[in-house]
Write a structure and sequence with these properties.
alpha+beta; 13-stranded mixed β-sheet; single chain; 9 helices; about 15% helix
Length: about 850
Amino acid sequence: MKVTVQSKPWRTPPQNHRPSARPSTRRDIGRAVGRSLRTGGTLLAAALLVVAGPLAGPAGALPARAAAADPAEGADPIDFVVLVDQSESLADQDLARETEAAALIGQGEISERSRAAVIGFGSSEKAGQSPVNEVCPLAVVDAAGRQRLSDCVKQLNRRDRARLGPGTDFPAAVRQAVTRLTENGGTAGDGGPAKNPGAPAAPKTPKVVFLLTDGRLDVSDSPEYGTDAPSRQSNGEKRLAEELARARAAGVQIWPLGFGGEIDRAALTAMAEGGYRGACSEVPGSAPRMRVVAGSGQIDKALQETFAAARCASIVDGTAGKPPADLFVTIPPIATDGSLTVAKHDPKVRVTYFDPRNRPVPTRGDFDGSAFEVSGADGPVEALRVRNPLPGRWRVHIEAPEGHRDREVAVRAIWQGRLRSAVVLDPVAPRAGQEAVVEVRMQTRRGVVITDPRQLQGVTVSARITGDGGFAPVTVRLADDGKAPDRTAGDVRFTGRLTVPATATGDLEIVADMAAPGVTSDRRPFHTTVTQGTPLLEAQVSVDRVTVHPGDTVHGWVDLTNHDSAPHTLRLALEDEPGGTGANSGPGSGLALAPATVVAQPGPATRAEFTLTVGKDAPLGALGGRLVVLDTGRGDSKLDAVFLDVRVEAPPTWWDRWWPYVVGGAIALVLLAAVAAVRIAVGRRTKDLTGVRIELLRDGVVLHTLVVHAGQSPGGEYEFGIDQPRGAAPTLRRGSRGGGAHRLRRTGAGELLFRPHRGRETSIRAGQPVAVDECELVVRDRRPAARGRIPAGRLLPGARRGGTGRPGRTGRTGRPGRTGGSAPAGDALPPTTGGPHGPGPDAPNAPTTTPAWDPDF
């Protein structure tokens, strides 16, 4: 008999724009009813359960697993028991750390379908004592179960010496754990054949025992093991071997963790190797092994790492600090399920969680595509379980009242990436004995294909083919190394060749299995059939390998050859699309096919074209899923299948569309502004009067001189006046004062214009005298003039030669022995003495005898 299990479409949590703390009441009620019915309850019991809520069962009772959601929606469950050594050899501080370590893995479990129990153990040495103390019976670690674990695990700190002996009875502890994990039908053999002949079958749900201890087997005072101490120890060792064999037969793994200096390493190794040796994957380190740490202060981290290895998860250490503080931990992009665990030690510490976008997340409910659930807030260990976490750096803010801030708080993240494995086979329907190429790629729940090989470091991928015909399963290892038949190395497409067994007939099923640290695949099967003889129809489908935006269209075509005498109607369909609800569309990726069917006419090869429209809400990245061609006349048998090589990018923004024009326009404006600035600068330089000398003359003799310095002629204009003190020679001064001002300016063309304070503006030439107030003004300019420049050595009419630096004369160079030199910047040059026609050195108002034109000026 062949049973086909049809899985439901993938679903993702709704995206809310604000956190919601409202519990999923309908889901909780349904889960409670399911538990009641599966444990043999009646509808009346179920109704009472809905009204009154779930009732706690008797101690030691094994609850049935909660109504499982679609397995694709969460991590695979695991059943585990934490055995905590409560013997007298442990100090109270060591026992407290064991308790916190047990709470950490209970609160940090990432699947709400898992079950967990916590059992303390010692010995039984007198009446009324039991070697085990079952503080937390096996329970589903959903929201309510995790809270119960947080409360009941605290009982480990209270050792009741009247009920628990001081020794260390490993056989009794292992027996109790295996019994709880296997009762009520939870035995091995429900997960298919074992990999090694003769080994027990792997359980469908992994069953694991984590054992914490500081010492070694000690039943020397336990009467049930014999009459004297030596025989009791010997019988205890034999009993432990028997219990380990029972665990191995039941498919229960043993992971011992020892701490301190009294550990019997050989005994812990024997326990790890004596239990079930199966592993969650082929990743190194996932098979049971013992571990020893120096002291109890390290067991919380060590136990979380051991737990992660046992359930094929990964753990990331965050930061630590004393409250108030911000702690940080990073969740990788490939994570689909995770928990942030906070070792508070003190229940008074309060925690607030912020996602990588620095938004506070709810303690329970959905927010921005993720589902959240906090537990243990009132205990020493708190955890935030997250489904579909936002990748990146999470912030954990801790606060505590005065008097509760002395303990260091640490945060860690345990996560797992549950990926969907998509398979294609070429040819899609091979003949018996034919070699075929199988190709596998991985995608997330949202249908986004994993394309970064760094996210799958250390991955191993294999494909297993089974089917009709009585042949043994064939397994082939797949590679992404660029060697044929793999096309490109590092593209996260794993390829290999397999030969269909010669005896194969009818249906074939191919399942891909992937293992990497922290990553598992859902082992979704690919179904096809064996072709007998020459196929009537041949089809090869192709799709453009393009990058598109949401709303764009992708083109594809099917090359068809119909060897039959009648036409065949073929259907195009998208398979393995998350959230898909239609035969020809995949809402998970927003794809729609048109047309959905094509007709293959008898005769030579033909080509039929089609389009795929990408929805506006399509996820970004490489699209997942397969495009298949089905023959509707032969029960939708597959003719061909290909992966979609379509990458979706965010639609271009306004800036993406127009930035070349904006940048080009900005460059043009900058160039225009630069040209304008240059022209303005050139114009200012052209108009600038800096260096111009104004001389005041009477009868050809220079009475006073004024030099225009830098910054004194804004806009090419300079104002000055003539002072005529009574009894003294007139002088020049800068600026306007009292009697008005004369103005000298230069135009952009370099022309000099002079306007007396009571006259009209006229054009003048450099060196040409202008009559002003019974005197004459002469303007000397350094700049060469196009015309009107007085040649070197030529004097104005009536001007007399003065000292030009001749020996023994006064000149502007100020040689030693004579007075002279230039005036300070911006000041008028004072009158100088000396000259053949002027007064002597002692004359108080002697006129200055300087040349009318200085060739060195």
